[in-house]
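Lab meeting tomorrow. Please check the following:
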Amino acid sequence: MASPAGLEVVSDDLQAFYTRVAEDSDESESRRKAARLFVLAERRLTEEDHTQALRLAEEALGIFQELVDSRATLDCLRLVIHAHQLRADEARAAGDNSGARDALKLAEGILQEALEAFRAAQSCRGQAAMLLSLAELNCNHRGSKKRDESLNAADEARLLFKECEDPRMEARAYLVASKALYKKHRVSDAKRAGEEAIRLFQAANDGLGEARSWLALAAADALDGRHDDALRSLRKARKLAQACGHQELQGKLLHSAASWLLEKGDSKAALAAARESVAAFKEFGKARCWEVSALCLVAQALCLEGEAEPALALLGQEIEAAQRSTASSGSAKVAAQAARDEVTLLLQLVNVHMSMGNFEVALETAQESLLRCREVGNAWCEAAVMESIAKIYKSMRRSGEAKSAALQSLECLKGLRARKDENEAQIHMLVPMLAQADDAAGAVKVAAQARALAQEREDRNMEAWSLLTACVTHGLSQDFSSAVKAGELASEVFRDEGNRRGEAKSLRALAEIFLRVGNYSSASRSARQAEALLEGFGDERLLASVKQSLARILMEDGDSRAASQVALEAVKICRASEDMEETAKMIFVAIEVNLACLSREREGPKELREFRELCDRSWRLAQEAAGISIRLNKKPLEAEAQHWRGSVLLVMGRTQDSELSANAALTLWRELEDRDGEVSGLVLLAQVKLSLKDNAAASTALREALALADGQHRTGVIRKLLEEVSTMSQAMAQEASRPNEEREAESPESSPSPSGVSTAESSFKAPNRELVQGYIVGLVKQISSNDDEEFELDTPLLDTGIDSLSSIQLRAQLSSEFRVNLPSTVVFSYPTVGALADLLVEECTTKQIAWG
């Protein structure tokens, strides 16, 4: 997991102290010179000139050692180790893993040698300083086991600094511990360590240290899903950074704010923060890679604001600037960095084109960036580009090519010996690609490989994620027993590691598995446990998704009222978070649950009233989602909103309006080249045509959908619908021919009945018109709550309290009572009780249906 911008260790922030030493005329010239070198070295580290910083720090170290200045020697030793550590990070970013390992090995050799010397001399401060350096060194990019060693070293250093009565360095030990605990997902412990660091930095009057500690607290809150708390902590950190005049830290704090605001769904605030971050980095002038990263956040926020074209223009300008910098640079190092910046911007350009549905253009751009990566020989960038290409192919439903690109990305990571990144790519990239390609067996195999690698790396959190992935993949292959075992083990490991989000996700996955096998009690229990874990946790999106699963479970278990209520709670959570896009998506789920509830048979006035209320609620939700999609100007969202609007209209009996919405959704999905969406649109259109008794058009739409559909489940559903259409067509043909056959059977020439009773004696008796009218009047009063004693039979039904929603109930009840199929527009075509009675008597008489 990448740390938030600004939390990485750069130096001990001692420039101010050594500047005073350098300017003190009472100090010796040698000490003043060493102090100047120290200040320059720290400055070069912040400017990312790590090689020059190392040379200057080593020179300062030599002078201070000659002067036998133990405190300054310790500061220089830590600065040298920081320089080696940052050189390792630089080499890793350039794809030079061998260089990164060499730099870390050098740093570790220096500090171990110094640590042994300080232990032999029983130097409390010396031991503490080297143990803190060891904690910083082992916290990043060295695996879970080294991170445990980092925590132990930080704890030991903290106690020693406390013994030495050095609160500032004790605070730095707490800060490193907070970062290590953050990476281990131990959020509560990370926050406690951050709070202690804040207290001690305040006591030491260290503004920059306190600012970084507030950032550590913010990072822990963001990991917990508490974005509002995280942003409050960031504001405090930024005030301190401004007071200290630290431009680079201000830029990084704004960068973190923009990232978390994007996660929160507040694209407008994210855009403002990202632009401020860009401005801060430009003013600092020495952190082009961070400036590029902030520019990418600006582009993301613009896309979410529906401003994709300005995002394209911005990225185009910056790509040209990066290309000019590469061409004009006289330094190989600067040219390589400019090339990496160019690839980063190209990848963001790919994301923008994908958000616009321009998959072919996105693919061309990604291939261009791939060539650029290979030109500069950066395997890290190549792995990232291949992952983007895999995502593009996945969006284009080209599963085989997506899988191939994902495997190539994985091979790049293996070549870099980036085992953590390889582990993450297995779980979050390759498994989803295989699942989409219906290769459930392959997905199960990769999930098992991911777990084995996590165990080898002794990374318990990653092992838990691989188990969760195994749970899902076993479910895809319908090995539900293995799925449950993997899910329960994942939940247990996450719980042991203190990762509540992971535990909640595992419980939700278990609930989905139990739902699929019809074990509703276990499914409900798992979902309720996940819900309880997340109450007050802060991750509102995850809580909403858990409630979504619970709604489906309750729906399948027959508790329609509770299902609808829980689905509505999920919508309210998303509304409260002011995430419009997520609100619309959750509305679609709520409508789906409501429609499933509406499809159930209903009897009696209470259930009919519930039916009416649910129709009304679903209609309001559909209108809200349509409004959101238009405001956000997002075609994929608008297409889905039209689809669900059409589905609600169909249930309400407004077939013509439903057909308009279905066609609108279908048109949008075709423009977006979204095959999945197009299949959904065609199925809805087929259902509308069935309602209009246009079986030929319904069959055509379903066959078109079948040709586009991927996956056994979807094709199975469509085939089933086709069978229903075929059966209905045959039934209608038989019904059309039935009266002639019956007349032939009832003619005088026909043979006598077996009982010897003549056909005249067993003749059919038509329903009594007055009784039918009386039944309709009673039903209308019941549905519309009309107690008017002066009920006129020629009064239009729409004037009696029957509206478009209650007309659905009236039609359904009459169809059930008289066993006839009535048209969806029956109330409009036969607008009075008398006209309805005539229709029903005629239908029953024609089809020889007895009633009364």
